[in-house]
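thought: user wants a sequence for this fold. calling inverse folding tool.
action: design(structure=
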């Protein structure tokens, strides 16, 4: 499989081709290259060293080297798991070293014991079998392919296997593949996955504490780190919680208590101003990066090559993140904490204003979480790893998702007449008058999608650039040239042409999601408002009548302090 800290291949493979394939993914793991061969099985690895940089090189082994593992990811509960394995000897201090030993004790049924983000391949040389697994939500990227010669290929990116496989596809999150069964099975089975409507009352303190725990556990590191701070609710909460609890962690003992924050945008972008205010409020060392529309346009081809999609929303947001990641890595930082996942869990996208009832609201959040690996997780993982930088996402912590998705969705519903805006339950959970986390107007700032928040001129500039390269005549033939996921705009057509040049295989185009969307909705949610079918654009500004700067419908923003009612909280943390 060829990938980040992890890149392994299993199958018939010629060693002479090793450098050719690992070079395609060297950006993901510039610190170490490893290769292990057993018979016709090959496990290769490119490492980005974060925990135990000195001795944690991969592949990793059990005591007698009969079990071999290559892993991309972080196992946050590895210290607790080591205590459950008293009879085992660990070769390294790597958090991923527990995987081989857990397999020895529990066979294939240990994956749910892992608390973290991961993609791994494990080879058992005793019977020449292997298993592959991907984390619950798909924070880490992973693909699987099959060769005509009977080989099975696993890679962290498409480019690691697309030239060698007859068919390949995204490895499903929360699943395990066993060579013995030659099939997938889902190991992650939370109650929300069935989309049944939960009924637990909203407990703001329980939600707050679950998120704080998710952030703190991610401060596991032996290298410098920082936080991405756009000034929106999600990244601001991540930064505020990190800054509040950093001093008590081992990370602070190694790297000090001063947190570094990073933001990117066009000159005058909404995010830049808000991020600077938050940084000053919580006391981070703030780094503000500017780019121009032309800088972004110049990076389009590189971005599409790295993120391996032609989805318009993902490309729009990936370009500034890609440019920022390069700057961050140049400062010596090796990983960052980011705010992906909150909008999916809490219905934060502006189109959720039109959810007709709590049942459809909840079902849409379930659909959005299940699709994250194709959109925001893909963007966050590949835009950062393009420069050897890792992104950690506490909103997608398994335990936090369990708490948040068990809340009766009636509490998540957006009800303007009651002063409840999008993500109200999350905002209220951190609305602490005595020890505030954020300025009130930041805590209640309207949702901005990342591709909008970096500057409204950004999307307009991309559309104008595509207009110069895609003619009306070309669009007339779009359905014939691209019968699958036919591009309906010139911007989409332009990205598709670039993608097909890099990844011409049918499996590659099938790996990208499609369908109508407004303000990042699923196709199902487009049905919530008849007017949306004539205004299909993934930008948040396409949510006409909702976004304060909606296309062709400028409306005055409501001051959040005037619409958010006070709530009393019982000693048990239950809202009254």
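)
observation: tool returned 576 residues.
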């Amino acid at each position: 499989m060829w990938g980040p800290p992890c890149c392994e291949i299993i199958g018939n493979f010629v060693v002479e081709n090793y450098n050719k394939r690992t070079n395609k993914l060297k950006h993901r793991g510039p610190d170490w290259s490893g290769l292990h061969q057993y018979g016709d099985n090959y496990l290769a690895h490119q490492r980005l060293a974060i925990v135990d940089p000195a001795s944690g090189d991969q592949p990793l082994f059990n005591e007698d080297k009969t079990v071999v593992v290559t892993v991309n990811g972080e196992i946050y509960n590895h210290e607790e798991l080591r205590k459950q394995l008293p009879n085992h000897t660990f070769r390294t201090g790597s958090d991923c070293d527990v995987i081989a030993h857990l397999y020895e004790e529990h066979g294939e049924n240990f994956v749910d014991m892992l608390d973290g983000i991961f993609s791994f391949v494990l080879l058992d040389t005793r019977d020449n079998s292997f298993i592959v697994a991907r984390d619950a939500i798909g924070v880490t990227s992973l693909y699987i392919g099959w060769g005509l010669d009977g080989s099975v290929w696993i890679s962290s990116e498409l480019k690691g296997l697309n030239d060698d496989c007859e068919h390949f596809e995204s490895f499903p999150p929360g699943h395990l593949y066993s060579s013995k069964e030659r099939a997938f099975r889902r190991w992650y089975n939370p109650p929300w996955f069935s989309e049944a409507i939960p009924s637990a009352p909203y407990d703001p303190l329980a939600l707050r504490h679950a998120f704080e725990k998710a952030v703190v556990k991610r401060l596991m590191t032996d290298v410098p780190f920082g936080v991405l701070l756009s000034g929106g609710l999600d990244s601001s909460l991540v930064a505020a919680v990190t800054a509040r609890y950093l001093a008590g962690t081992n990370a602070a003992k190694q790297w000090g208590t001063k947190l570094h924050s990073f933001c990117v945008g066009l000159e005058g972008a909404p995010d830049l101003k808000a991020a600077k205010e938050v940084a000053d409020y919580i006391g981070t060392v703030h780094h503000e990066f500017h780019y121009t529309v032309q800088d972004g346009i110049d990076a389009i081809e590189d971005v599409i090559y790295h993120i391996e999609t032609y989805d318009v929303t993902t490309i729009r947001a990936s370009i500034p993140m890609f440019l920022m990641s390069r700057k961050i890595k140049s400062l010596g930082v090796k990983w960052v904490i980011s705010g992906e996942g909150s909008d999916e869990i809490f219905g934060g996208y502006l189109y959720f204003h039109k959810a007709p009832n709590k049942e459809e609201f909840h079902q849409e959040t379930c659909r959005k979480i299940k699709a994250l690996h194709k959109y925001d997780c893909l963007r966050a993982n590949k835009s950062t790893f393009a420069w050897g930088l890792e992104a950690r996402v506490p909103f997608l912590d398994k335990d936090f998702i369990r708490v948040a998705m068990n809340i009766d969705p009636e509490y998540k519903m957006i009800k303007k007449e009651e002063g409840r805006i999008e993500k109200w339950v999350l905002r209220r959970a951190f609305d602490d008058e005595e020890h505030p986390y954020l300025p009130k107007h930041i805590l209640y700032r309207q949702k901005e999608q990342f591709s909008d928040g970096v500057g409204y001129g950004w999307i307009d500039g991309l559309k104008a650039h595509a207009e110069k390269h895609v003619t009306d005549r070309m669009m007339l033939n779009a359905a014939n040239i691209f019968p699958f996921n036919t591009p309906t705009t010139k911007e989409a057509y332009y990205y598709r042409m670039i993608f097909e040049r890099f990844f011409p295989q049918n499996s590659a185009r099938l790996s990208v999601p499609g369908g109508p969307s407004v303000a990042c909705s699923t196709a199902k949610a487009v049905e919530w408002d008849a007017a949306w079918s004539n205004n299909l654009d993934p930008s948040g500004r396409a949510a006409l009548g909702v976004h304060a700067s909606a296309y062709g419908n400028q409306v005055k923003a409501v001051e959040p302090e005037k619409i958010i009612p006070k709530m009393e909280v019982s000693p048990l943390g239950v809202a009254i």
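thought: summarizing for user.
answer: Here is the designed sequence. The mean pLDDT is 89.
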